[in-house]
Amino acid sequence: MTRSTILYACVLLMGVFISAISQVMLKKASQKKYDNWLREYLNPLVIFAYILFFGTTLLSIVAYRGIPLSMGPILEATSYIYVTVFGVTIFKEKLNRKKILALLLILCGIVVYALAG
Description:
0% strand, 6 helices, 117 residues
């Protein structure tokens, strides 16, 4: 793997991480009660989350210029790990055996791809 590919892979990973943060922001916003449906969708937290989503789309476009298409889904699978960590730490969600097994399978897939690629 070249330095350029590693740089573009880091750009994609950064975008995936920011996307996970956006998901947390939207979940936080959904837990609040609003006076009407317009305030539910037009509040600063939701608007900023969607701006971040737009930014992550741009990061993905830039990243795919320098990484193989086969690498993208592997790197984007890290979002499941980020979202799970945020869910447990921020929302106090519980991990069960199925979730832990699923995360381990995702990690194994990433490792296998990294070693074979």
